[in-house]
Amino acid sequence: MLSQSEADELKPFLESLIRSCDPEEVDNDPVGLVRDYDSKDDRELVALLASSLAYGQVSQIRKSVRAALEPFGSAPSQKLASMEPSEIISLLDGWYYRMTRVEDLVDLFVAVARIRAKFGSLEKAYLSTSGTHVERASAWVTSLRAHRHHDELSRGFKYLVADPGLGGVTKRLHLFFRWMIRLEDGIDLGLWTEVAPSVLVMPLDTHTARICRYLGLTDRKANDLRAATEITDSLRLLDESDPLRYDFAICHLGISKGCVHRRTPEHCPSCPIDTVCKLAWSVG
Known about the structure:
50% of the residues lie in helices and 1% in strands. By secondary structure, it is an all-alpha fold.
């Protein structure tokens, strides 16, 4: 984790990295699909679907999300709320995405509709519990699982909506919360107005974790909840009220192909974090 002096040194570089982000990158990110819908209910549903499927190539993620939503028209939340599970199954027949099968998708849609009928919204379901953000998120996932259609909790659904209370990184779930809770900024949506952005946890994947280590945000080698929490705590030294404002820029730097994972005079001078990178220079 950073010291305050290291955070003060790093902050101008990350602020510059945010300013360098191309707004059109959103169109090549799963969150861009959420902005195709206008109503809060639809955006909340599409955000949960898109974030839950955000594993693999972005082009395939976006294709699969669109295919899952197409049968339900321009107002999927409203249509799904009035449908029986058997009708949803029929409309989605043949859909799959990697390890996520149609029964997992049906369970997700049914659970969202049932939770909304019970609590009014996914946000209110989250607010119905207490504790830290991770504890509330874990209870929220438990509620989502409890409202599925199928009796058996499949391995696919456990992967689709992972429980952060088990200590894993659960990147896709934390991504959903970031989209919902951070204020509207052209990327995140600010739909959950009763939850403070300060509680969020970094959505950590392999690429983002690597860049965070290069920046000194964590020394932890494992990609798990503890590492994500340590990175978030480091970022709180830069912005206590909104630590995840740097996430999108770090993430897209992480998935770029410019880094060769070692410091060399051929690659590093053009990198925006060159002067603050903790990697040792390559020898020979």
